[in-house]
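Notes from hallway chat w/ T.B., transcribed later so I don't forget. T.B. wanted the structure written out for a chain they're using in a teaching module, and asked if we could keep both sequence and structure tokens in one place. Agreed to drop them here.
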Amino acid sequence: MTSMKMTEDGEEVLPSLGTQPPQEEQGCISCQTLTQKLDISKQWNKFFRLKLANVDLMVRACEREKERNLQLQLAYDQSDRDCTYMREQLATLLPEISPLRKRLKETEEQLQEEIQGREKAEIKVDSMKSAMDQQCHKIYMLQKKTNATNWDLIQKKLLLSRALVRRLKVDVSHKESEYHIPC
């Protein structure tokens, strides 16, 4: 194999293929051809370097995308496990919820009945208050109709009657004690 020579730019120069050194006329034409070939070679070299750099960028982007996809897959797997766990919990909790719903419904019905009972009781209390107010008004009107002297007389008779009842009770109790009547 022949060794490759490098230019100052770091580009490879192809060795001659064993031809005789060109003569001056041929040297100029050969130089021009070689210069053109060198320029074309430099352009291809630049193209391949850019392509290689682009391939490297694409490889890095691909690696980043693979890493991102891996992270997404891991997150998806974790979410899937969480979802499965939640489904299992839901499956175990659903049978427990059914009696609770029934109990809640019964409690709500009882509450509604209690509310209706309370409303009825409040209506009765209001009607009783109204009746009481009417009765108080009637008593007041009756008291007003009776004059003060009749009222005083009635009160005195009531006091006398009460005193008489007390006195009679005392007399009865004395007579019982005299006769010793067993009860």
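Follow-up for T.B.: The longest helix spans residues 24-145. Might be a good example for the class.
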